[in-house]
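Morning!

This is the sequence you dropped in the shared folder:
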Amino acid sequence: MKPLSVVVPMLNEAAAIASTLDALRRGAPDAEIIVVDGGSTDASVAIARPLCDTLINASRGRAHQMNAGARASHGDILVFVHADTIVPPTFAADIASALSVPAVVGGRFDVELDASALPSLLQGIFLVITLGVLVANLAADFVYVFLDPRTRQEA
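The structure's back. Tokens below.
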């Protein structure tokens, strides 16, 4: 499998970030994990720093953080994971399997939401535009897409 980069935008996620990063490391042990902090005022940064490969700061806002993480990534496959998401143990294998089909250019995982996720669900549609492909997904907790190094510029 080509190198996998996982970008985790974060803002005040001290309660969840360790579990998220631990699950990512178990599900994709060889992945490059990049946490992008949007100005946390809690202990998020101190918790995340030893659990990821790279921790960078970016302007507050998920799009700014995702763009900064994409620019910092080195993998051929880019995955965005919300800071409060627990990925399955088969995370990297699932992505490799999906991407082994030549017609697949991107995708998402189905998620289960608990009662605390309802406010996120009500926030609407999460959009990612990469390589001219629009992936729209209600309350997506993570999406993976191919990135060409030439597309790692903010549009």
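Headline: The radius of gyration is 14 Å.

More detail when I'm at my desk.
O.
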